[in-house]
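Need the bound structure for iron/sulfur cluster, inputs here:
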Amino acid sequence: MSNQGTSFKDWMKDKLFMGKTPVEYSKTLVTPFNVVAAIILLGSLPVFWMRYTQGLSTVIHANSEYPWGLLLSWGIFAGEPLFACGFIVAAAYYLFGMKEFKPFVRLAVLGGMLGYIFAASYLLIDLGRPWRIYYPMLINYGPASVLFVVAWHVSLYCTVQLLEFSPAILEWLGSKRLHKWAVKLTVGLIIGGVILSTVHQSALGAMYLATPGKLHPLWYSSMLPLLFFSSAIYAAMSFAVILAQFAVRYFSERCDREFIEAVPTMTKILGKGAALSIFVYFALKILALAQDGRWGYLMTGYGYWYLVELLGLVAMPMVLFIIGVKMDSLKVIRVASLIAVVGILINRVNVNLIAFNWNQPNHFAGIIPPWSEVHMIAAMVTLHIIVFRWIMNRFPVTQELPQYRGTH
Amino acid sequence: MSEDKKDKKGIALSRRGFLSLSMLTGATALSLSSKSEASIDKFKGWPGSFGMLTDLSACVGCRSCERACNETYNMPQPEKPYEDSSVFKERRWPDGRTYTVVNRYQGVGKSKRTAYRKVQCNHCLEPACATACPIHAYEKTPEGSVMYDEDLCFGCRYCVIACPFNIPGYDYDSAFEPKIVKCIMCYPRLKENKMPACAEACPVGAITFGKRDDLIKLAKKKIADNPDKYINHIYGEHEVGGTSWLYISDVPFEELGFSVNLPDRPIIELTKGYMQTVPIIFTTFPAIFGLVYAATHRKGADTKGGNE
Ligand code: SF4
Ligand code: SF4
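Answer from helper R.:
Posting the output first, comments after.
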């Protein structure tokens, strides 16, 4: 904890270099992961340079039929359901009073918050004129637009998440008074966060309500908003399971006993929740298929791919979740979570790319991303991990500082 | 008539206002929304607006329309001259450099003939692009043209996603001033009482300009006079709520690459229901979750887990 007496150097040492001197600290930086990360990031610099000086066409694949490529699909549509983990866990603890989640709230909120910040960064790459990103908020309104709803809710939600995470930042800075205020605000913020999440997760699906005739009938449904929302719930729970496991495995020295001991119980509760919500989603998917009478499409190439998604990536993790919960097996729940997350990623890419404009000539040639787009994604993922690690190593995320015990 | 127009404008404005309000106060918007949504239902295009009718059986693929358009708007020169028919080897599409292109389709229809199709914005009566744009950069004008304002656009390209015809092009080549590029049905020329340049340039009269209502009558008459020749369908009369640009053809539309799986309802109708639930979520969720919070944090119950 810093106070008036400590010099700037000590502050740096304490807050930034994890209690080491700069030289000691920089020695710890040479690890295989960091070397690979550095290569990916350095290699991406020319790609980003091209994007911002020569235009989008130099780095992403885009035209009138496929205005959005893998970058946007991955960065926004596939990522956001996972990053609902913040609101799910916070709601479980603060609103539903599930005490077991207490040690986990911050990590989940951090995972969510960071995810959203990165989603916004992907947008800054993909927007034609990123410096106008605030236009729907301040300059002109498109009230009939679903994207308008997404823009507002995502930006408000980012703010809410930042506020939700602020107690950790304030503890890191050692500001007790502000900390007390931030904690008091929490319940209101959580309810706000639940609303904003519900709306924008479903709105991401609602965006595709505008594409009948373009999105393959197996994926197009009037239930898209509901499907996107319900799948975000189990995706978030699955992601939370993985996140907790990840923290214990790679940041064990940053986790206090309370956190580590809580992980098995939380995993089981999350597994139960995921089993239930993935079942609801599965039922809705079948309902959507029946409602629109789309069975005939199942026996086509797209139908087989749809079945891979529905059976392999929804039904299978559903069964595994149930087995895991019944057998009390953390391992099975974790495997189920992993498959469920992969399933969500694939589902979103299906809607954005694979099943979108499927009846255009040369469809598959149209959606294969160039290497530069893939490289940008790799760079963003690398950066995401590095920032996450930086925060985990410094902020009290998976531990409770003794001086703040019982204040939140 | 002019009274009518003013009315429509008023509605358009209130529609614009309604959601920004709902973002702030769910309840007010709830009552407002039902009113403004009702007016959306009734909107069937501006009375007396203009349109175009392309007779695909007449088009000879000379690309005079492409050239006229290019010259009228000083668009970039094409790589190959307009006389060069080798461009037909590829299927082209309007993009950041052109408003319109003509494509060739070989061996189509009953007679397995070679047909041509001009592609450009169809100027929907209730444009999906305008519905989709989060910044309201598009506007359907009373004249019929769907116009786009580059000064508002931030380049998300959701309009391109939403357009049922894949029309808006984007100049992805520009790093600093990329913008949507699409046919404007010669709005400036309409204002000068001139017909669109392509219709004027067509040497065989395959493109007819006129009031949309009259064009529908004309199309119906053409089909009725020649029932063996024409497909009995006016493409654009009802597709996605109707478009200002209409087509008749002797070749089935799907063989010329038209989307034939579009609903007759405008795109805004498909997202409207969802948009109406947003204020409902805003008004009901605080109550629901407030109750949940109260129930799980009752006095006497173990509140260690909760706040405070
Ligand atoms: S054809 Fe597409 S771009 Fe043209 S008005 Fe309709 S939705 Fe908009
Ligand atoms: S690209 Fe521009 S015009 Fe199209 S929806 Fe986005 S902001 Fe609106």
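Comments: Chain A has 15 helices and no strands. Residues B 132-133, 135, 137, 148, 153-159, 180 surround iron/sulfur cluster (ligand 2) (CB under 6 Å).
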